[in-house]
């Protein structure tokens, strides 16, 4: 491994603009050279190829219980000042995403009892109505921005309605989910990000508790009531587990679904033959959404922690080490995908891992898919002359999530 290729990746991870513009050529260089490598600067292993990433996602020796390693990065005086009563500390350990089995399986089963496919499918008319409302509002803007005017508000409004949280809280929900996305994604600014997350957790607790009390007194037809009542063999979610996983559901799908819609519109508009094909054959929308997920994966990275010493393709990795699984790189691996840098909405074999794999496979995947399968056709049908107002991509600065800060478009 030449040092240049690795440091290119480190620059990309640290959000250097020039490296961000060469994302996929940097990925290919790494893949061509080594399936796994160590970054001293990032203090973690980087898995580069599809087959090893897939295997690692299912490997029980790789843990999701990463809070201890996040806390280890904090200065000693900060760590000493945290006590178990801090809601972030108390509840981060109750989020299903940050637990291993058997705790993870138990939490996921209870949440699954409430967050059902039927409940998701019921959002179809709401998604259609909100799409038209938001596009109507976007048309009033001097310079329409697909991200700010559409792709940010839509997923937040849908999840708020589904959970049963009033629309007045939309601004706060955005702040809480941004704090969560940065906490998961920006390990480089740990201290600032940690404090923002800690205060978001305090605010969210104060906000959600009265709603929980109200639903206990008077259940409604919403996810909050269903989660309170979710039961499996006499087991229920505790108050902290309930709050932690409502926060997770509220936050996990916002940045990611915004990115899926934005990346999708960008991919279609920069590939005129593909958008023309989709206009001619609207039935290709589901395959198109899968190709967007593969081609510009909204969640580029997930992480694990070694519970014990393991080997990945002959490389010894000690216990208590961070391992980065770059889903967006695996989804461009030429040994798995023919012509991986070609955006092809008719791609035949598309076993992408944009939603992860195994026990932690994205719980919200059906909702993210449904929203994007409904909204993109509405947008491209409503504006036959839709164009990008600028060819320059303004990516958001977060190494974990891939999406646009703004996406200016011309409607006529
Ligand atoms: C395009 C949109 C989305 C993408 C790309 C995405 C991606 C992912 C990925 C990669 C994971 C696995 C992480 C891991 O294994 O470490 C995951 C887990 C999860 N996602 Fe999503 N997600 C999306 C939308 C959503 C939505 C809309 C929701 C909820 C409403 C959601 C809720 C969750 C939850 C609860 C988990 C944790 C599952 C577990 O630990 O068992 N996601 N997501």
Structure description:
- With 412 residues, this protein is of the alpha+beta class.
- It is built from 21 helices and 13 strands.
- Helix 8 packs across helix 15 (223-229) and helix 17 packs parallel to helix 21 (365-382).
- Strand 11 and strand 12 form a beta hairpin.
- It is globular and about 55 Å long.
- It has helices at 3-13, 17-21, 23-33, 50-57, 67-72, 76-81, 87-92, 103-114, 117-121, 124-139, 146-151, 153-163, 170-185, 190-217, 223-229, 239-252, 254-269, 272-280, 285-295, 327-330, 365-382, and strands spanning 36-39, 44-47, 62-63, 231-232, 235-236, 301-306, 310-312, 315-317, 322-326, 387-388, 394-395, 404-406, 409-410.
- The chain starts with a helix and ends with a strand.
- The longest helix has 28 residues, at 190-217.
- Helices cover 55% and strands 10% of the residues.
- The protein has one domain: Cytochrome P450 (Cytochrome p450), CATH 1.10.630.
- The strands form 5 sheets. A 5-stranded mixed β-sheet has the order 1-2-9-6-3, sandwiched between helices. Strands 4-5 form a two-stranded antiparallel sheet. The chain has a two-stranded antiparallel sheet with strand order 7-8.
- The chain binds protoporphyrin IX containing FE.
- The site of protoporphyrin IX containing FE has 24 residues, from helix 16, helix 17 and helix 21.
- Protoporphyrin IX containing FE is lined by residues 96-97, 108, 159, 248-249, 252-253, 256-257, 260, 298-299, 302, 327, 354-356, 360, 362-364, 367-368.
């Amino acid at each position: 491994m030449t040092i240049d290729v690795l440091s290119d990746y480190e620059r990309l991870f640290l959000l250097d603009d020039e490296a961000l513009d060469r994302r996929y050529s940097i990925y290919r260089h790494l893949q061509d050279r080594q399936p796994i490598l160590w970054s001293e600067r990032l203090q973690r292993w980087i898995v580069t190829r599809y087959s090893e990433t897939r295997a690692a996602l299912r490997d029980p020796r790789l843990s999701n219980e990463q809070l201890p390693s996040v806390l280890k990065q904090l200065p000693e005086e900060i760590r000493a000042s945290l006590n178990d009563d801090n809601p972030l500390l108390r509840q981060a350990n109750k989020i299903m995403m940050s637990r291993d089995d058997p705790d993870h399986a138990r939490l996921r089963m209870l949440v699954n009892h409430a967050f059902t496919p039927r409940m998701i499918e019921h959002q179809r008319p709401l998604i259609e109505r909100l799409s038209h409302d938001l596009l109507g509002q976007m048309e009033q803007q001097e310079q329409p921005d697909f991200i700010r005017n559409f792709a940010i508000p839509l997923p937040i409004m849908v999840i708020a309605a589904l959970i049963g949280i009033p629309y007045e809280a939309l601004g706060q929900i955005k702040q809480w989910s941004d704090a969560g996305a940065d906490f998961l994604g920006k390990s480089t600014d740990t201290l600032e990000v940690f404090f923002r997350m800690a205060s978001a957790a305090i605010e969210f607790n104060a906000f959600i508790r009265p709603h929980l009390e109200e639903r206990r007194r008077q259940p409604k037809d919403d996810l909050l009531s269903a989660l309170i009542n979710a039961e499996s063999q006499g087991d229920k979610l505790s108050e902290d587990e309930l709050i932690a996983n409502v926060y997770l559901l509220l936050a996990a799908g916002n940045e990611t679904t915004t990115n899926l819609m934005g990346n999708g519109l960008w991919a279609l508009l920069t590939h005129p033959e593909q958008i023309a094909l989709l206009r001619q054959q609207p039935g290709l929308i589901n395959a198109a959404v899968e190709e967007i997920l593969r081609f510009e994966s909204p969640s580029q990275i997930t992480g694990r922690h070694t519970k014990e010493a393991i080997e990945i393709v002959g490389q010894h990795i000690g216990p208590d080490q961070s391992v980065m699984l770059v889903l967006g790189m695996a989804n461009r691996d030429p040994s798995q995908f023919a012509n991986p840098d070609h955006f092809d909405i008719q791609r035949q074999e598309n076993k992408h891992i944009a939603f992860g794999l195994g026990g932690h496979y994205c719980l919200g995947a059906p909702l993210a898919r449904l929203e994007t399968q409904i909204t993109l056709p509405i947008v491209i049908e409503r504006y036959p002359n839709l164009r990008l107002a600028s060819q320059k991509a303004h990516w958001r600065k977060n190494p974990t999530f891939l999406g646009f800060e703004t996406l200016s478009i011309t409607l006529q």
